[in-house]
Design goal:
The protein has about 220 residues and is α/β, with parallel strands linked by helices. Helices cover about 25% and strands about 15% of the residues. The chain has one domain: 3-Layer(aba) Sandwich (Rossmann fold), CATH 3.40.50. The structure holds guanosine-5'-diphosphate (GDP) and magnesium ion (MG). The site of magnesium ion (MG) has 4 residues, from helix 1.
Length: about 220
């Protein structure tokens, strides 16, 4: 059985990729100041207190956007919701609660999956900023104050993840997967090929060269 999946979702630029990198302890995912930079989901194995799971950095959820890339990212996030055992919703303490946060929270509540609310960019030491308490309004229970840049609060966050993972979900067996790399010049059809093999839309396909900016791991099972 595959490892349980934990998905990181949230608006562009709230710090999902930074959190993801912090949690897996290495820089796999592109972090940039421009909203919408992470266009594909990124998977990595994450271990905490002897338990391991797959962490997914989604490209974000933007339910009301007409923009093509953003709406495709939303679809990817929906797939992540479908697959994930636990969902981490990341919000930005500096922005306060936005309308999009509300929409996303509603979407996640409807999914019925356990949701952990991560209030990111709480960089200061000591008391959390007053704005933190606003996030109780999302109806997702106790938010966790995190600074993905400094690493504060990530332990509490991971503890919370483990609370929701059932031991049966875990897989002690050695990985016997064959690793296949699909490489090639931009725009030759790598993403289309992978999607065809994976049997679903796992990678954003666009005729804009260079759309896939991060490496994407996709598990494929055949017979
Ligand atoms: P994503 O679009 O949600 O994946 O956001 P990114 O991880 O790419 O981060 C967007 C911006 O927020 C980058 O400039 C990060 O350096 C910054 N950022 C992320 N986490 C924190 C944090 O905990 N504190 C501060 N001050 N900035 C952060
Ligand atoms: Mg990102």
């Amino acid at each position: 059985m595959a490892k349980p999946v934990v998905a990181v979702v949230g608006r562009p630029n709230v710090g999902k990729s930074t959190l993801f990198n912090k949690l897996i302890g290495q820089s796999l995912s592109i972090v940039e100041n421009t909203p919408g930079v992470t266009r594909d989901r990124i998977y990595a194995e994450c271990e905490w207190l002897g338990h391991s799971f797959m962490l997914v950095d989604t490209g974000g959820i933007e339910p009301q956007s007409d923009d093509v890339i953003l709406s495709q990212m939303r679809r990817q996030a929906e797939v992540a919701i479908e697959r994930a055992s636990v969902i981490i919703l990341v919000v930005d303490v500096r922005d306060g609660v936005t309308a999009t946060d509300h929409d996303v929270a509603q979407m996640l509540l409807k999914s019925g999956k356990p949701v952990i609310l991560c209030v990111n960019k709480c960089d200061g030491v000591g008391d959390v900023p007053a704005e933190f308490y606003e996030f109780y309004n999302l109806g997702l229970g106790d938010p966790i104050a995190v600074s993905s840049v400094h690493g504060h609060g990530t332990g509490d966050l991971l503890d919370e993840v483990l609370r929701y993972l059932s031991p049966e979900d875990e897989d002690d067996e050695e990985d016997d997967v064959i690793r296949v790399a699909v490489i090639g010049k931009p725009n030759v059809g790598k993403s289309s090929l992978i999607n065809r093999m994976a049997g679903e839309e796992r990678v954003i396909v666009s005729d804009i060269a260079g759309t896939t900016r991060d490496a994407v791991d996709t598990g494929v099972e055949n017979e």
